[in-house]
Amino acid sequence: MKYNVKMTFELKAGPDDAGRRLDRILRKTLPDYSLSLIHRLLRQGKVLVNGKKANPDERIQPGTLIQLKSAVNHNIKQVNKNHKAASPALPLPEILWRGSGIIVFNKPPGLASHGKASLDTLIKAWLAGKLPLSLSFKPGPLHRLDRPTSGIIAFSENLEGAQLFSRLLRERKVKKTYLAIVEGSVSENEEWQDELSRDTTLKKTFTGNKTAQTRNALTTVKTLASNGSYSLIEAHIVTGRTHQIRAQAASHGYPLAGDVKYGGQRIPGGGFFLHAWKMELEECPEGFPQPLCAPLPEAFCSQIELLFGKDAEPYRRLI
Predict the structure, then answer these.
(1) What pTM was computed for the model?
(2) N or C: which end of the chain has fewer CB within 10 A?
(3) What CATH number has the domain spanning 2-77?
(4) Is 194 marked active-site?
(5) Of the listed 17, 57, 120, 146, which one is catalytic?
(6) What is the pLDDT of residues 225-272, one digit of tens each?
């Protein structure tokens, strides 16, 4: 929406804006405005809160009316018109659990977590008009899965849920277990501990000697089935680094089958098989199952059957 010279517009704060600083709310609502411009408008008295001149550090409460008079052209986020959002073009992924401001989905492979035509845009379109208005909070994915990776991903529905899940992640109280098909025969139990560095240009993670730029990564691995050439593994990540399982598996000589970026051999159909299978929370919201499990995609099940046999005990147990 475009506003031009000397326009006045109004914004109304919602429950998830409670206690937030005015300047931070304006920064979220006006992405084309620099923080310095926002502070200048505040100093000039062009921002009113409930009809009175406001200070940048003023804490906003639900229902607060914010008025802004500006002679600067700008774009305003559609924070108060969610009901006009476009309907999702893709089917909604399976909801595994919903409660305490968190929705957990079973992401299909091939769907990006963020960006255009992603899980983020899909779920926001689905939630449009269903949530209380908010100027500063936007629902979104609480962690990432690579586009080819399927399985459990948590999405915030309100600020309380986002804060809860983010705190549990920081305190390492979220236990994540993945299933993967890797090349080679992995011994029954292994522990992978490495120093990882990230090349943002190549968008690739590397293992190497510890430096100021590297971060420790720890993954424990259990083999569920093996035919000598491929293994089905259960990988529990103690840390949560970008491409952790992919980089560590390749470094230890077991690249994910089909993960060409990390040295795996290309397989028919392309892509690789990595599935966020289980999630357990040390501080469990009411009704959250322990563990929460995501069914495997059909293609993953078919690949297990092809490589390890339909009657393999792990195959029967996983589906």
Answers:
(1) 0.77
(2) N
(3) 3.10.290.10
(4) no
(5) 146
(6) 999 999 999 999 999 899 999 999 999 999 999 999 999 999 887 789
